[in-house]
């Protein structure tokens, strides 16, 4: 239970403070907060960082659930708690920490090495030579450590509860309980282990514990589930950003939740049937630049909330709204991004160096024309003019079975794709994520699949496509939608050889592409766009977007 993790940990500290001086150390005293802030990141990395290393996970693999025949030649496991797909060392660390003696835990590294050798031997025995060749000991140990941290997070939030030295003594012979609930030495071992592993993650990014740990959370989390669809929360109490908190992580976490709330608003407006559409600019070339009630409500929610949550943050929305409902701030939400995931540059970013570009409803024309699957909510974050993080939310996304379940989709609807430099991109179809490199077939133009605009056809764009001579051309609506087509490998390139897009159309998508080795540049000169707060919003020179640097300048 993330909501009560810190309070539960304070109770545990009080109950155990006399058993070891470790419980008075700053890092250990704040372990509940540290693990709560890292909960989403741990779950996401454990579930989706290693898609090629999957097996059936038991979920409660302890000695009480394992039976051997008299000759010790066969084994049976009962009481499967999870019985789903996951990383195999989840069960290994569970068995070690629930059933292993202190001597077993002290020999942990030797046991892991032996397990790895036996695993590879069995993989080869069953003809899985490729898997054996690519599954190194270092990778397995890394998985084991992440699983251990996630397990201690679970114990603090759900299992340890009122465990005391006295209860451990009383339960010493209860073999159906984990050793960490019937042995003082085991509980202390796990706490020390978690503190050490988490400290390694934090120090790897150069985090100062005195700044990271003492900084208050922007908002206390309520649950691992997403925020409810009630976009206009009655809560108006907003906690200011802590001076020591990693700003990019906080802004990106807020953007993820707000994009999903915005998607819920868009679906609600669409379901009512009355879009209350107006023409924003009767002088545009197409003669119609629609704005709907969904555009207005989602901008009020996203832009208004970000401005109130982060006073001083520069937030620019497409609709240019200036007054916002005071009840629009959603609170609370979980830390979607852990500080230790950020690159050193982003970790040190200041609020005044960030600019957020918001398109509340990208693909409004398609929205009006009854093609909602092309619609996205776009939130891009730029640091000193360079796009570094972004969120693309599809309100009418893919079925929940096809998306990254580290993001619990509201009622099975919607798809949230987000990422940042150094973190990678998460939420793609099939659970793809964590720095997945976008590799295109070759630099030869005639094998490329090109996305073009569905509703902004120009002579210049037609000439560009003709020059490239792609194998296939796919007209799609919505800038965010086309970025997702590139990221999910449905197309290789998006060509838009004329003006029309704005910074709020491209900031989020460019950040995501850069996070996996892709790029977006001006069509005319190949230069990147500047996303500083004072820059013009118009992308006057069109754009070329690719999933990999390996393709070269196909439009030259």
TrEMBL record:
**Domain of life assignment:** Eukaryota
Cofactors named for this entry: Mg(2+)
Gene Ontology MF terms:
3'(2'),5'-bisphosphate nucleotidase activity; metal ion binding; protein kinase activity
Q: Which GO terms describe its biological process?
A: phosphatidylinositol phosphate biosynthetic process
UniProt keyword annotations, A-Z: Hydrolase, Magnesium, Metal-binding
**Which of this chain's residues are annotated to bind Mg(2+)?**
318, 359, 361-362, 505
Class in the EC hierarchy, top level = hydrolase
Reported EC number(s) for this entry are 3.1.3.7
What Pfam family does this protein match (any one)?
Answer: EcKL
Key word Nucleus present in the record?
no
- Which residue ranges are recorded for the region named Disordered? 532-556
Gene Ontology, cellular component aspect? cytoplasm
Query: Looking at the keywords, is Metal-binding present?
Result: yes
Please give the family membership noted in the entry: Belongs to the inositol monophosphatase superfamily.
Identify this protein by name: 3'(2'),5'-bisphosphate nucleotidase 1
This chain's source organism reads Cymbomonas tetramitiformis
